Amino acid sequence: MISNTTKEEFFSTNKNFDQLYPPPIRRLSNLHWTPIEVAQKAAHFLAATPGASILDIGSGVGKFCLNAGYYSAECNFFGVEQRSSLVAIANQVQQQLGITNASFIHGNFTQLDFSAFDHFYFYNPFYENLVDESLHIDDSIAHSESLYDYYATNLYTLLATRPPGTRLATYQSSHTRIPSSYQLVSTDVDTLFSCWIKIT
Ligand SMILES: C[S@@+](CC[C@H](N)C(=O)[O-])C[C@H]1O[C@@H](n2cnc3c(N)ncnc32)[C@H](O)[C@@H]1O
User: Which domain holds residue 183?
Assistant: First the structure.
């Protein structure tokens, strides 16, 4: 585990944080991993209730959960990720940083019981299904437009059945796929980052 001083340095800039990852993962950061300033804003919004459990849907190498866990020590952050290689990297960096309120689950979000979580975050997790293979994280999983629709529809239903008061933060994600029971309460980062609260 690293010292507190060094830990602060890692959390001080996006570039420093990315140094925690192996070079091939670091190179994907601009396109695929949440910038630390967005993670900080999302954590601030989602951690409104102390003790809350917050799920990152498609957690990649854990950049959101690890930053959110660092900034909001009173909540627990969980990530679900379909690629086992990314979960392994997230676990490794979590150990290195000694962040104890973040954990990672290997699997597909469609298999998770959403009632175990209070609030949710996602960074356009299904978009990879719509773009050229040069923009894919890797070729370890299948990609298709029908998968995009399947996942987006599934997530819509899961979010629609959460109780009023559920908070949702989204980054670079389509507003049209958010159930109308969620009210948009703020946007930031050139409207790329959005905060929602379920009202009915
Ligand atoms: C744009 S990345 C965001 C990673 C992370 N949330 C972050 O912000 O740093 C989206 C991630 O979602 C994962 N993903 C996509 N569909 C998924 C699914 N059905 N179940 C679990 N993970 C999924 C991808 O493998 C990818 O790692």
Answer: 4-198
Per-residue pLDDT at 3: 84
CATH of the domain at 48: 3.40.50.150
Atom of ligand 1 nearest to the CA of 107: 21
Beta-carbon-side half-sphere exposure of residue 39 (alpha carbons within 13 Å): 24
Provide the domain count of the chain.
Answer: 1
pLDDT for 29-78, tens place per residue?
A: 999 999 999 999 999 999 998 999 999 999 999 999 999 999 999 999 99
57 is written with which tokens? 């849907």
Beta carbon of 18 within 6 Å of any ligand 1 atom: no
Starting at the edge strand found earlier in the chain, the sheet holding 182-188 runs 102-106, 76-81, 53-57, 119-123, 167-171, 193-198, 182-188
Q: Is the CB of 83 under 6 A from ligand 1?
A: yes
**What's the pTM?**
0.97
